[in-house]
Amino acid sequence: MTIEKIIGEILSIHPEISREEILERLDRVKRRTASFIADDVLLRMIAAELGMETLKETCTPTLSIQDLVPGLNDVTVVGRVVAVFPPKVFKGNKSGKVASLLVADKYNILRVVLWNDKTDFIEAGKVRVGQIIRLSHGYTKEDYSGRVELHLKDKSEIEIEPKDVEAKNYPTISKYTTKIGDITKTHKNKNVNIVGTIKRLFPVSTFKRRDSSSGKVIRFILMDETGETSVVVWNEKVDELEEKLKKGGELRLVNAKVKKAMSEGLEIHVNSGTYIETITPTEEFLKIADLKEGLKCVNVKGVVVTKPIVRNVKTHKGEYVRLASFELEDETGKIWVSAWRKHAETANNLKIGDKVMIKSSYVKKSFGEQLEISTRSKTLIVFLPKE
């Protein structure tokens, strides 16, 4: 629909408004949005504000997050959910519930505030990290730090995994993740998203606030391949995380704040607006053709193609231990497996044609310079069901 047709639609429904008034209103909105949004989109938004339901339903524009400014009405945004914060109950002149999300498109990340009934989507577990979501008929405001955020109330709509949206156009949080070693003074008092492994964990401390109430704080050192940083977690986030934090655990922090450390340098602060995800390492299974000498913690799957041979062998320490040897095959090749000690007893029960999964093994060269898979104490040999 052209600009003139939209103006004509507005005038036909609202004859009390002149063409000049519409153009003046358009000019005010254009100045407020720094002319980033096209005139036809702004006119459709003006029409929606005037209660033109037909035009509103058929022409509600979808905006990029980078185009949003405070003060817009009837806004529609599509993005990938990168953080979900549970509902909270508030009381006062009006009581109710409020929850929030962080969504991302290819341009930026946006905080979305859900009020009252709209929090049911989160409470029921319908909205999850990683989903594509369309948020319609919301309005924009400026938060306490000057950033724009989207609010959804009674007439707003939430559509999960819309069929007319291509997921590939909406990045995961990885696009907006900063390496620890890249955090500099330019990030001070700004929010960042980081991923790392807990190197060191300190005990929880309590403190007294000025109003004599008690607070909690916990610190830990988070590292990635580029460096390490101190992370400070405050108050209710301590209760949320205390049992999840352990040395060696991997975390993703979304919307954490960079601050000046008390001593020197910078540190990361986690508060109620930070989303924390415990990352479970995914198990990677290698193909036999891709195995190389020296690989550790190797996971493979295959079919047993030779009957296991079990014997006692003498180690370099002079002790005799059980060893079972058999050949494993997948679609890319074959390799011999040496199952030592307790694993020899498991392997002894294998038959030709059995499908097995071997986890946490290592690859070395055996006699004749051939590669073999060898077990260690942490190795698991698991029977797989036949298809």
Structure description:
The protein is α+β, with helices and mostly antiparallel strands. The chain folds into four domains: 1-59, no CATH class; 62-175, Beta Barrel (OB fold (Dihydrolipoamide Acetyltransferase, E2P)), CATH 2.40.50.140; 177-279, Nucleic acid-binding proteins (OB fold (Dihydrolipoamide Acetyltransferase, E2P)), CATH 2.40.50; 288-384, Nucleic acid-binding proteins (OB fold (Dihydrolipoamide Acetyltransferase, E2P)), CATH 2.40.50.140. The chain is built from seven helices and 21 strands. The protein has a five-stranded mixed β-barrel. A hairpin with a 5-residue loop joins strand 19 (355-365) and strand 20. The radius of gyration is 30 Å and the shape is elongated. The mean pLDDT is 88.
